[in-house]
Amino acid sequence: MPLPEPLRRHYPWTPKRIPTRSGTLSVLDVGTGDPLVFVHGNPTWSFYWRTLVGPLSATHRCIAVDHLGCGLSDPQAAPARLADHAERLVDVLDALNLAGATLVCHDWGGPIGTLAAMARPDLFRRLVYFNTALFHGPVPFEIRTCRWPVLGPLMVRGLNGFVRVGQRRAIAHRDRMGDGVGEGYLFPWSSWERRAAVQAFVDDIPLEADHPTRATIDDLDARFPAFAASRPTLLIWGMQDFCFTPAFLDQMKVRAPHAEVAALPDAAHYVVEDAHEQIVPRLTNWLATT
After folding, report:
1. Residue 225 phi, psi (nearest 5)
2. For the segment 254-270, what is each residue's pLDDT rounded down to a tens digit?
3. Which of 37, 119, 168, 232 has its CA 20 to 30 A from that of 178?
4. In degrees rounded to 5, what are phi and psi of residue 147?
5. Structure confidence by residue, pLDDT tens digits, 127-147
């Protein structure tokens, strides 16, 4: 899916195309130095990381993957689970010749990226998490409605409601969506077919006791504390997030008690969009001193 020309002023790079065991992914790979591997969530794509990739690529190799069905990657022909996305990310890692990497995750990117990193632990020496969960937690009512029969797909895939409502609820400073930025977030989700990945992520939230992804998250939660214990970890949190609330940050601190924490009171779920001016110097200093 080609990038519209007007968006190139926000996203001026040309990503790689990397085949995986189940589809070809678009992978941004710019800059030189120690690698930073950025993993996005739902309903975003590597565009979400652009305000970090720009300045950080002056000193680091910045790698940002688009999950299958997202951004510039191949469409998602069949529903995908958390484990499927993690397996594809492992294929990308294997193709990139990495060493001494830092994992940088947001939203669904947290569990996807961490599962992949735990599958290739020798590649990663640091961990950075923005508003995510690696464990089971409460799911807001408005997200649960997207799982309702008939109404859920109509809202998510028919009206593009998950993406559009996200632009209002997920950001504290709505003016950040001006100057074509909002169009950048909307661009991948132009049709019922393209929104299949958005719906699949919503459907993969393990609300039910017998949901197949519940066991994947249970395993991730059990293994994460030991994995994180040997790696410098940074938690950067938008404290106005309606989904991954400050209570989720508290649970992350329980699992990674050694982590450095940056709580940003004026940022919401799209914390990087709200606060990249604060995040870049904080992250740059942390990378230089850990």
Report:
1. -55, -40
2. 999 999 999 999 999 99
3. 37
4. -100, -5
5. 999 999 999 999 999 899 999
Q: Would you say how long the chain is, in residues?
A: 290
Per DSSP, 7 falls in state G
Separation of alpha carbons 90 and 150, rounded Å = 34
pTM for the structure as a whole: 0.97
AA letter at 32: T
Q: Which two tokens stand for residue 165?
A: 């409502």
The sheet carrying 16-20 orders its strands as 16-20, 23-30, 61-65, 35-39, 101-106, 124-130, 233-238, 260-264
What domain count does the chain have? 1
CATH number at 36 reads 3.40.50.1820
pLDDT of residue 283: 98
Cβ neighbourhood burial of 27 (10 Å; 0-12, 13-18, 19+): buried
Q: Nearest to residue 281, comparing CAs of 52, 47, 103?
A: 52
Let me know the angle formed at the C-alpha of 116 by 110 and 119, rounded to the nearest 5 degrees: 135
Contacts of 36 (CB under 8 A, 6+ apart): 56, 60, 61, 62, 63, 101, 102, 104, 287
Taking 70 as the pLDDT cut, the residues of the chain under it are 1
Q: Which domain holds residue 164?
A: 5-289
